[in-house]
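# step 3/5: fold
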Amino acid sequence: YNGIEDNCDERGFVWSVCGWAGTQRYSVVWSGDQYGSFEYIRFHIPTFIGSGLSGYSLASSDLDGIFGGSGFTYLRDLQWKTFIPVTYAMSGWANNDKHPWNYGPTTTDINRKYLKLKMRLTPYMYTYCNEAYETGTPVVRAMVLEFPEDPVTLDKTTQYQFMSGEWMLVAPVYKSSFDRDSIYFPEGKWIDYWDGTVFEGNQFLSDYYADFNTCPVFIKEGAIIPMYPEMLYDNQLPKDPLTFDIYPSGYSSFELYEDDGLSREHRTGAFSKTLIESDGPAFGQDGNVSITVGTYVGEYSGKPTERSYMFEVHVHKLPDAVLLNGQALQQYFSLEELQNADDGWFYDADDRLGIVHVKTQALSTAISFEVVIDVPVKIGENTEDSGLKVFPNPTKGKFRVSTEGSHIEEVKIFDMGGNLVEDYPVNIHGHTADLDLSSVLDGIYVLEVKTNNGLFREKLVCQK
């Protein structure tokens, strides 16, 4: 280690199979030469958790062992190790060299997906690696470390799951099965990383279906997860745009850490920290969401003077508007349109129960900025207890309007210019009405429902 640092300007990097107290200051540690199997995966989960509790944040092991193994166990091992600091393969005495492309096209495609994700998660992982450097708090965190007041976490009940940083709960598949049992969620809401399903806390989840593509990962409400653009290795491409994957719930924050990634100058203060804050209603509730990106505090070689951003904000209702520093951004009706624009926003109701994609132009890193997502609670004359429900909304054409305790007398639909929409089928029967807008252009409309208890309005999105 000292030999490296005494002869170059870069950071010492040593790989050790074992060491005494203090080794964590100098070396990645790994668990030695072993056979790849599901049992190998099983016992390494608590091994890495325990290593973190012992001060070793950079603990890892050979992907699928150095002996034996298979395409299936390689895939499962790589999936969960996407969410630990150090992931590597070591070829040795197995029938196949331990390369992620050596197990056929299907396994190769899945391995590629997770390796790309790991690269994109670099700013999230790097920030928590710096926290480990500054405080000793590991990246791979025992559930009891993050939730010490939860009695379920006090014994070995949760030894086969962990928190990757503050926001990502990882429950590796460690059996030859497509089901994962006994996943425990502490208090709060937990969102499936892959499809957006919301789970309530203080309970266990069993029979979670994890096919070849899926490592069970759940995001704690309030999460702010920074991501770099897709690239094959560090610094292959500019780290622009910077994406924030946000699950807004009340107030939360994330302090992004960045430095030059190579030199030792960070030890003398050459780095920056940027506070990202999110504030809004509880997760899944209507109301405005405010996201603030602060100034980049600190200096280092290569620090960007300006940067563009993408936001992926998990909200379950189409916003009225999205504002950047108080100015309304242009709405687009496909992600492709947004990607081809300089800035703007697009709401995708089919992506993980609803995602607002926001794009900015390059903004100065010396000035903070605010993005506000205007999600209305109600429209027009509605009261909180109106009982008006529209499902599904957004709709691909057919939808149902229902009321609680009110008889529907008439339904009208207006475009956002206030023009009455005509020539669509509507069938009213008591407390419900069925409509079909299959012949209407995609867009945002206002639904006006007249009942015996008053007139109510609701925003409707037609998105085929």
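# step 4/5: annotate
Helices lie at 2-6, 38-53, 71-81, 105-120, 122-135, 143-146, 335-340.
# step 5/5: archive (pending)
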